[in-house]
Amino acid sequence: MDVCVKVGKELASDLYQELFVILCEKDEAWIEEKYHSGYWEGFIIRIIFNQYYGKYTNFAKCFINPIGTEDVDNIEVIENDYEIQGDLMLLCIDEVMSRLDWYHNKIWHLYRNGDTDKGIAPFNARSINRGTGISRHEIWRVLKLIKEQANEIYDKKYAKHFD
């Protein structure tokens, strides 16, 4: 208990209890072997130090940095701009797709969603090539066209809001 008091100060009793929990989880043969080896005190001290100073131990989670005990009034929450930008980019792609013909829409649909009947995996131009016979060069040309037009719309409408 003296080591727990020196290391853990006001958390000494909690640290002492955590030590016993750890020792109870150990195998009896392991405990007897360490006790009779003459290094018992060293093992106990190492366990105490690891529990108190370790960042990812149960003791640290429960007593040193417990969830819900930090003052949240002064924490500034930064919005996840990437999710918002992604949603806006999908709106731009939808706008582009409404202007393009059925061929471009079909290639985009196959690229975005795939087709299990034809063995086309989502986001895979090679599987579109194998499933439909359309050349990969043509598929990439269509996807590049969609991307460029969507980027133009995004830059005109939304980019100024995320600088």
Describe the protein in words.
The chain is 69% helix and 0% strand. With 163 residues, it is mostly helical. It is elongated. The protein folds into two domains: 2-64, no CATH class; 81-162.
Provide a brief overview of the structure.
With 163 residues, the protein is mostly helical.
Question: Which short descriptors sum up this protein?
Answer:
mainly alpha; 2 domains; 163 residues; single chain; elongated; 9 helices
- What is the helix tally? 9
Radius of gyration: 30 Å
The poorly predicted ranges are none
Helix-strand topology string: HHHHHHHHH
The biggest sheet amounts to: none
- Helix fraction by DSSP (H/I, runs of at least 4): 55-70%
Helix/strand class:
mainly alpha
Give the SSE layout.
Blueprint: H1 2-8, H2 12-25, H3 28-37, H4 40-53, H5 58-64, H6 81-99, H7 102-113, H8 125-132, H9 136-157
